Recover the amino acids of this structure.
């Protein structure tokens, strides 16, 4: 167990290191240097001024030192939770990210958890009820296959623009300041619903279909056949099938995270939902690579942590993994 | 008898589970496909031809497979002959802009550009297929190679390749795409497809690795090895054919997921330059307020086409799965 | 312009200097976080008393320093801080604002500063002082002495400033730079000497200034990540001109994308939008039988919008064949701007005058010169010019930034037209920064650009065209076409040192420049981008409009407009619907 | 006779139609008898074995009767059949090594299974432990997961679980196929031990491996293409087979201890007929070296010698001529 844990930690640390190094490269790999990109957005009335600016800004960005030093500075920044300054928003990157994170989490966590739980339940139910299966299967496929952007556009058009049941965009009404008051909370919930629904539906389709297929497979496995041969109740067989089918779904969850995060970016862009995804979009269109760097680092850490937790949880849930840790006994 | 040759835990399990992974529709339950085919061990030519016949027999009778293939065939037709049947050049403008769908403009025209949506749509379908095929081939080749190598060699190579796989899983594709797109001022569809493949192979590698592990442990491979054959020859001649059906399913799913990833890229403006893909159409429609202006014919058809293409691929996949795996055949 | 980025906003303001940029980067962590806490961030404003505006800010409010045009939030200039004069581009001329009068007396300029103007603190609205000539003198001296002040170059020819009561006397060395001084008068903020003098020299230029002390019609009330809200200042001096605001609050919302702004506007969540909203011409006239959107624009018909800046086809004149005047003439004659105006912009923009000077500078345009040398769409003529140029069929590229979809559409259109006369042009869409670097370094063939913003004289326009010398890196937004014409540049410099009162001489200089421009075509003006303005009339009415003489004010809150042109007049006209 | 099977027909439905996998089979097994059931792949032996306990979705009980301990076994009725499973009929499946839920400890799984059958786990726990020890498994097996055991250990555990409630009939489906020779013998001996201790009354051992049957089976039944070919006591089948198919089956074994594979027999040219639409007459006719005109009619399964039943015209003819000969000789004498 300890060896396994150690190996996992090392793997994740190496992954983190590589991913972070690539992340560091974002502003540095860009053609031109960040200073020129930055200066490019302002109206400078004399060339002498431009040269003077270049010097000052290079200092501000810390790009006037050798590359290896920049790299070390970056790591020191990461460890101090300081990702530099967004030149698009003229504020610390961590500050901007902190504002966006609650929105993204409010979208992602319920969407992932609910779609996972409901998808698994309904998928398992569909696996044994022909009528339900005939409904769940096509709908599940449609949701699973729909591009995030399209589902978001379609929901926005029909439910927001046409029927006006929900607001079509933003995280809350422009006039209502964020805070713990009912006006804001109600407005935030109304704005939250459609983006949530988009992410939820696509993920839900995937989980339901996956679970349906897995349960069907599990019901066809040898142990299920054996139990049936010995007259075990349907309930027991299904319980076993469900339990075993959930295991691969759980590791699928780890793989799905990256995809959901990607889809979430698109969804937030469609709904202009003020989360990290939208921020990424703003950072891309404004070429604010320091902001981009910070957000990606944040996402990388999030995805890695989630993967790590799932890995560990998996070990606790699936006895088979524990075997490979302790080594063979037979 | 050792029982530990099969990899267990998340890596092995991920293969099937991933079905849930929204939008990267990894083999819905290839758990079954992964299972060694009965009798796969010593296939005489007679049996093989019989199985081939059997495959065709079940294939043409599988409703899901046939439905999926028919829909797919329609879109493939569009993809191939789209430019021939396109009524207008996709950049040609008509006044006034924003025409409703009609016989002249099946999907109306855009607003404010006044371009024929149907003609753009035809080209978008073609580009999507191109990206899907390129992505599937490149991800498939890399995933198979890495998975085979890791599963067959094991040891330090396995550890190293697993680490590589892990890193690629955790790196958002978007990050790389953004960095690269800043360099590649003119990005082609070819580039996008290959890029998606090069960053999208990890689950294939994981699945193939697990599969290779189980196959490696089986008698016929042992026998081949004892007879002194080279590893590559065993992998290619004994293991690969046994995984053929599985590999085929993987390609179908890679195809679908590559197209979906491309839509995301294109929608964010990171797609190929100078083309009009499905994602570009939705991006433009969104940016040019097609929702608020009720120009629904601009953004609904492209996404619907993509959804249909992917659904058809998924259904094809399930159908094939049922054909390959007798246990799943409908009774 | 769909995702118009911060650029166009920043451009409209005056020049920026080094520290103004560097300091927010160096000091933003401390200043914004520390001082922001004093402005509340959670307040709900009654809809019926609040005017919601949008279209200027592209990122959240973190700075209210009027000396920091690159970082300040909408309203800093105009609602909080005010200049000495305003410029009225619609009717021409300057309006006295914090100064009641100003006169040249030989080498000196003497101003009378308005009486009864209070310095009011945000958000408490306490009166903390009274405006005197000292404050004005302090502001001018700050610009003179601090090389990082954004108006440093405008006051380069000032020798000294003195104040006595409400009278301020500015003495110049040698020939005053009349035009640049005039620009100072209606651009630069008047700062509170007492408070501003206590700041460090860095904070004077780029401190976040989250609790401003100001003279303007409103005070800062709250900020959040999506908006800044202002409260009407009861101590404002506007009554002296019969001006007062009828709304109690004004919230300026950070820009979303067009479709968001359009949705907010049509659903009445937004009253005043300065966003580029494609399709607005459709909504104004009603859509799908729904004519009740209640959306107003400055003109009720095309072009709907006032003109704000000139979009050019920029050519690298150091490269063949663009260095050949006949080739440039061929390009100019081959393009039909009208097809872009209608096909891309649905007539919410206007085709440009051949000189490229904005309509507010119409009086400077010599119609005879335009008639004689001006170009127009004429493919036949284009082919003739092309032949004369000896064009060898070189393949050329035409660049616009990736994602600027209106420009992307425009250059597809232009490329088709150029190819039709035999000029081989391929549209390309590099990232914004790549294109920027191409323009600065002269590594491009052709590009679309719009860096010529509104001004009260043609001076800055021609400065952009003819500025010399040309460096390897043209870092400033000047002469990106790299065109060398020392005679023209001398004329531009002469114009800058000619008193604005000497109309005859200015007319003659500008006529010469226009002639030069149209004959050599260093740039090809294509269309005027609009001063995008659309308003929702469900909650508020009395918006700026060309229809009513009392409503003919600038309808734009962009930097360089809100506090510098007549937008405050427009706001004072707004009443409950 | 604890088990009596009477003209049993079990059909397999496929998309191409019904496969008559077991087509009118009659035999019986005595108390304490271990009967081997052998034949080529696809001859219906597995269908027959499995059909006696669990008809899967595609299998259909098309006719005939199964009587166990004097009562009819409702094999066509899954609901009614349920209560007989494990208690009166049980199976050690072909996949015994993977028959246990991988994510449940063996004790826990057995407890779950018994509970769902209404049996108190605690009351059989002691016996369970004893039998675990009997088959040579360590006592802590109940607290282990299946994957913590070797394949052989899992199989033994499965054998114990399947026979825990002392069924009258045990079906061992290919129980020895995947094992090496020494383990095969051990498993065979275990089956005999189970019989001897009265854990099971009658046992059907389905296998490819005639050599193992020779060691453990009392009688051997040979099936071909859904029909019975030959039945006799083990020694007779090995030493004096009458059916040409049995003879070839034995001849194709290169040496004792090696089993024939799933592939068609090398020694016998041709393939078994399709059971979708089986030919009239003797089904082995096409591959039979001694076939003659009479084989166009279906041969009856008759007892030619005491306890030795065969379905072959040639064998019948031979027996008749032998009898005639004997009669002639007798007459001559």
């Amino acid at each position: 167990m300890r060896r396994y844990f150690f190996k996992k930690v090392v793997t994740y640390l190496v992954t983190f290191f590589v991913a972070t190094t690539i992340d560091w490269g974002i502003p540095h790999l860009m053609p031109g240097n960040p200073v020129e990109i930055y200066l490019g957005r302002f109206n400078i009335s004399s060339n002498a001024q431009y040269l003077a600016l270049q010097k000052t800004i290079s200092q501000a960005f810390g790009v006037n030192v050798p590359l290896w030093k920049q790299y070390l500075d970056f790591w020191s920044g990461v460890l101090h939770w300081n990702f530099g300054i967004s030149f698009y928003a003229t504020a610390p990157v961590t500050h901007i990210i902190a504002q966006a994170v609650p929105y993204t989490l409010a979208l992602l966590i319920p969407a992932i958890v609910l779609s996972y739980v409901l998808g698994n339940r309904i998928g398992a139910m569909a696996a044994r009820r022909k009528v339900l299966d005939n409904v769940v299967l096509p709908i599940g496929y449609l949701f699973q296959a729909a591009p995030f952007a399209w589902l978001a556009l379609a929901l926005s058009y029909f439910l927001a623009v046409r029927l006006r049941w929900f607001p079509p965009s933003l995280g809350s009404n422009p006039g209502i300041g964020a805070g713990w008051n009912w006006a804001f909370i109600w407005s935030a919930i109304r704005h939250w619903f459609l983006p949530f629904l988009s992410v939820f539906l696509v993920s839900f389709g995937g989980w339901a279909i996956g679970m349906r297929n897995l349960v069907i497979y599990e019901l066809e496995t040898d142990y299920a056949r054996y139990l049936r041969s010995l007259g075990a109740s349907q309930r027991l067989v299904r319980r076993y099938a469900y339990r075993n089918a959930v295991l691969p779904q759980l590791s699928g969850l780890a793989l799905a995270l990256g995809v959901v995060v990607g889809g979430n970016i698109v969804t937030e862009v469609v709904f202009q939902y003020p989360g990290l995804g939208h921020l990424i979009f703003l950072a891309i269109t404004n070429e604010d690579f320091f902001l981009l760097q910070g957000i990606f680092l944040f996402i990388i850490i999030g995805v890695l942590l989630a993967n790590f937790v799932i890995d560990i949880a998996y070990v606790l849930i699936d006895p088979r993994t524990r075997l490979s840790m302790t080594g063979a006994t037979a | 008898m050792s029982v530990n040759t099969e990899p267990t835990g998340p890596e092995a399990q991920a293969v099937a589970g991933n079905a849930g992974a929204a939008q990267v529709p990894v083999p819905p339950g290839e758990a079954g496909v992964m299972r060694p085919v009965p009798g796969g061990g010593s296939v005489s030519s007679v049996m093989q031809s019989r199985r081939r016949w059997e495959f065709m027999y079940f294939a043409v009778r599988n409703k899901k497979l046939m439905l999926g293939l028919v829909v797919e065939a329609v879109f493939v037709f569009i993809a191939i002959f789209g430019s021939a049947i396109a009524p207008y050049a996709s950049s040609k403008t008509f006044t006034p802009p924003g025409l409703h769908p009609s016989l002249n403009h099946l999907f109306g025209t855009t607003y404010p550009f006044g371009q024929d949506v149907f003609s753009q749509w035809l080209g978008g379908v073609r580009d999507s297929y191109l990206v899907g095929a390129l992505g599937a081939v490149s991800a498939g080749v890399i995933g198979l190679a890495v998975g085979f190598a890791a599963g067959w060699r094991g040891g330090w190579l396995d550890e190293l390749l697993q680490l590589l796989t892990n890193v690629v899983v955790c790196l958002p594709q978007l990050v790389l795409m953004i960095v690269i797109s800043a360099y590649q001022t003119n990005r082609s569809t070819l580039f996008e497809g290959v890029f998606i493949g090069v960053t999208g192979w990890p689950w294939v590698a994981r699945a193939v690795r697990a599969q290779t592990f189980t196959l490696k442990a089986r008698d016929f491979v042992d026998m081949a090895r004892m007879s002194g054959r080279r590893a590559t020859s065993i992998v290619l001649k004994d293991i690969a054919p046994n995984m053929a059906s599985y590999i085929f399913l993987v390609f179908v799913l890679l195809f679908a997921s590559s197209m979906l990833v491309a839509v995301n890229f294109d929608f964010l403006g990171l797609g190929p330059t100078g083309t009009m893909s499905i994602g570009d159409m939705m991006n433009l429609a969104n940016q040019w307020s097609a929702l608020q202006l009720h120009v629904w014919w601009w953004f609904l058809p492209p996404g619907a086409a993509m959804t249909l293409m992917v659904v058809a691929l998924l259904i094809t996949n399930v159908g094939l799965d049922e054909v390959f795996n007798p246990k799943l055949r409908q009774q | 312009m769909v995702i118009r980025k911060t650029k166009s906003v920043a451009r409209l303001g005056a020049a920026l200097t080094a520290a103004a940029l560097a300091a927010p980067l160096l000091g933003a962590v401390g200043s914004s976080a520390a001082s922001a806490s004093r402005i509340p961030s959670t307040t709900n404003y009654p809809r019926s008393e609040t005017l919601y505006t949008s279209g200027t800010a592209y990122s959240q409010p973190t700075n209210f320093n009027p000396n920091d045009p690159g970082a300040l939030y909408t309203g800093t200039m105009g609602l909080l801080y005010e200049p000495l004069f305003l410029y009225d581009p619609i009717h021409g001329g300057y309006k006295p604002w914090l100064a009641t009068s100003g006169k040249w007396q030989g080498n000196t300029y003497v101003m009378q500063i308005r009486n009864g103007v209070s310095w009011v603190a945000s958000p408490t609205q306490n009166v903390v002082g009274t405006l005197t000539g000292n404050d004005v003198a302090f502001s001018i001296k700050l610009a003179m002495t601090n090389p990082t002040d954004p108006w440093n170059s405008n006051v380069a020819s000032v020798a000294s400033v003195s104040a006595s009561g409400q009278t301020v006397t500015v003495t110049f060395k040698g020939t005053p730079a009349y035009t640049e001084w005039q620009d100072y008068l209606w651009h630069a903020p008047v700062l509170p000497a007492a408070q501003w003098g206590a700041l460090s020299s860095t904070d004077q230029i780029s401190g976040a200034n989250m609790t401003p002390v100001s003279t303007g019609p409103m005070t800062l009330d709250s900020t959040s990540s999506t908006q800044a809200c202002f409260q009407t200042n009861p101590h404002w001096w506007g009554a002296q001109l019969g001006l007062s605001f009828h709304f109690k609050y004004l919230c300026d919302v950070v820009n979303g994308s067009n479709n968001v702004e359009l949705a907010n506007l049509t659903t009445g969540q937004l009253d005043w939008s300065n966003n580029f909203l494609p399709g607005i011409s459709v909504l104004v006239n009603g859509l799908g039988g729904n004519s009740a959107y209640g959306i107003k624009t400055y003109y009720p018909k095309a072009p709907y919008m006032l003109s704000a800046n000139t979009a050019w086809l920029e050519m690298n004149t150091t490269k063949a064949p663009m260095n050949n005047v006949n080739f440039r003439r061929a390009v100019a004659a081959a393009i039909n701007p009208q097809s872009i105006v209608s096909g891309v912009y649905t007539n919410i923009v206007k085709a440009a005058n051949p000189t490229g000077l904005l309509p507010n500078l119409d009086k400077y345009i010599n119609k005879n010169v335009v008639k004689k040398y001006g170009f127009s769409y004429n493919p036949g003529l284009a082919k003739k010019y092309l032949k004369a140029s000896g064009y060898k069929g070189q393949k050329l590229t035409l660049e616009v930034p990736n994602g600027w979809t209106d420009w992307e559409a425009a250059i597809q259109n232009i490329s088709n037209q150029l190819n039709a006369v035999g000029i081989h042009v391929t549209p390309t869409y590099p990232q914004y920064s790549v294109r920027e670097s191409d323009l600065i370094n002269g590594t491009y063939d052709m590009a679309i650009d719009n860096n010529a913003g509104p001004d009260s004289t043609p001076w800055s326009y021609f400065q952009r065209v003819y500025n010399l010398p040309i460096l390897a890196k043209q870092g400033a937004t000047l002469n990106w076409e790299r065109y060398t014409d020392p005679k023209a540049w001398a004329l531009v410099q002469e114009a800058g040192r000619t008193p604005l009162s000497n109309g005859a001489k200015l007319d003659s200089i500008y006529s010469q420049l226009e002639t030069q421009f149209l004959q050599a075509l260093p740039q090809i003006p294509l269309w005027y981008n609009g001063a995008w303005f659309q308003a929702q009339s469900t909650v508020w009415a009395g918006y700026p409009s060309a229809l009513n003489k009392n409503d003919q004010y600038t309808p734009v809150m962009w930097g360089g407009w809100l506090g510098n042109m007549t937008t405050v007049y427009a706001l004072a006209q707004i009443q409950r619907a | 006779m604890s088990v009596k099977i009477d003209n049993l027909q079990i059909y397999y439905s496929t998309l191409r139609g019904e496969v008559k996998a077991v087509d009118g089979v009659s035999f019986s097994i005595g108390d304490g008898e271990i009967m081997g059931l052998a034949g080529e792949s696809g001859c219906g032996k597995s269908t027959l074995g499995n059909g006696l306990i669990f008809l899967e979705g595609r299998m259909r009980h098309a006719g005939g009767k199964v009587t166990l301990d004097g009562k009819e076994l409702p094999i066509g009725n899954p609901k009614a059949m349920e209560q007989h499973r494990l208690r009166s009929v049980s199976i050690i499946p072909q996949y015994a090594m993977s028959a246990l839920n991988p994510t449940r400890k063996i004790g826990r799984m057995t407890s779950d299974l018994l509970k769902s059958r209404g049996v108190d786990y605690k009351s059989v726990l002691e016996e369970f432990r004893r039998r675990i020890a009997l088959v040579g498994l360590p006592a802590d097996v109940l607290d282990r997961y299946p994957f913590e055991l070797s394949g052989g250990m899992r199989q033994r555990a499965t054998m114990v679980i399947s026979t825990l409630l002392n069924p009258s009939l045990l079906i061992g489906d290919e129980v020895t196929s995947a094992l090496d020779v020494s383990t095969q013998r051990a498993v065979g001996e275990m089956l005999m031990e189970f019989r001897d201790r009265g854990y099971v009354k009658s046992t059907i051992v389905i296998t490819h491996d005639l050599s193992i049957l020779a060691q453990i089976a009392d009688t051997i039944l040979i099936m071909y293409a859904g029909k019975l070919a030959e039945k006799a006591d083990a020694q007779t089948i090995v030493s004096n087979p009458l059916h040409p198919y049995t003879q070839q089956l034995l001849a194709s074994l290169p040496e004792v201890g090696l089993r024939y594979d799933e592939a068609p027999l090398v020694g016998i040219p041709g393939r078994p007929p399709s059971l979708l639409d089986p030919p009239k007459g003797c089904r082995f006719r096409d591959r039979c070296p001694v076939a003659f005109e009479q084989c166009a009619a279906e041969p009856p399964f008759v007892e030619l010698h005491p306890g030795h039943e065969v379905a072959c015209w040639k064998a019948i003819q031979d027996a008749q001529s032998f009898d005639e000969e004997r009669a002639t000789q007798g007459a001559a004498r």
User: Anything to note?
Assistant: The CA atoms of residues 51 and 500 of chain C lie 38 Å apart. The first strand of chain C starts at residue 50 and ends at 54. DSSP finds 18 helices and 24 strands in chain C. Chain C touches chain B through 33 residues (CB under 8 Å).
